Amino acid sequence: MIDQETNQLVCGAVLLEEDARWKDQANAYYIHNLASNPYQKGTGKLFFSYLESFTKEKGKEYLRLDSLRGNETLEDYYSMLGFVEKGTCVDRNYHGILRERKL
Q1: Per-residue pLDDT at 10 exceeds 90
Q2: Is residue 18 a contact partner of residue 26, using CB atoms and an 8 Å limit?
Q3: pLDDT score recorded for residue 74
Q4: DSSP string across the chain
Q5: Which pairing describes strands 84-91 and 11-16: parallel, antiparallel, or unpaired?
Q6: Averaged over 33-48, what is the pLDDT?
Q7: Taking all residues of the chain, what is their mean pLDDT, rounded to a whole number?
Q8: pLDDT tens for residues 58-82?
Q9: Does 15 have pLDDT greater than 90?
Q10: Angle made by CA atoms 27, 80, 62, in degrees to the nearest 5
Q11: Are 94 and 68 in contact (CB under 8 A)?
Q12: Using CA atoms, how far apart are residues 101 and 26, in angstroms rounded to an integer?
C-alpha cells in the first residue's frame, strides 16, 4: 500500500493460495511477510480492509495467517481484527499460532 501524499510504501504482504503450515487448504488467501510502517497509525487496519475486499472479489472465503507464539501485542491485534485462533504450527524453530477470518 502506497501513501498517496508521500508516495512511500507504508504496508505490504505476500498473499499465497496454499500454505504448508495449515493441514487443510481452504478457499483462502494466506498472508505472509506482513510489514507496515509503525509511524503511520491506522495503516494496518486500512490494509486489512483492502485485503478483505480483494479476497472477496477473488471468490475466497477466508483470510488466514500465522504469528509467532508469545507475541501478545500481535495476538491481541489480530483478535481485534476478527482473526480467530485455529491451531498451532511448528516450522523448524518457529512456533506459531494459526488464525483465520471468515469473510
Answers
A1: no
A2: no
A3: 93
A4: -B-TTT--B-EEEEEES--TTSSS--SEEEEEEEEE-TTSTTHHHHHHHHHHHHHHHTT--EEEEEEETT-HHHHHHHHHTT-EEEEEEEETTEEEEEEEEE-
A5: unpaired
A6: 89
A7: 94
A8: 999 999 999 999 999 999 999 999 9
A9: yes
A10: 5
A11: yes
A12: 12
Report the candidate in 3, 101, 5, 4 with the shortest Cα–Cα distance to residue 53. Answer: 101
* Cβ neighbours around 31 below 10 Å, total: 22
Tell me how far apart the alpha carbons of residues 21 and 90 are, in angstroms, rounded to a whole number.
Answer: 8
Cell triple for 67: 504469528
Asked whether the predicted pLDDT for residue 27 surpasses 90, the reply is yes
In the chain, the amino acid numbered 22 is W
Distance CA 97, CA 41 (A): 25
Class of domain 11-102: alpha beta
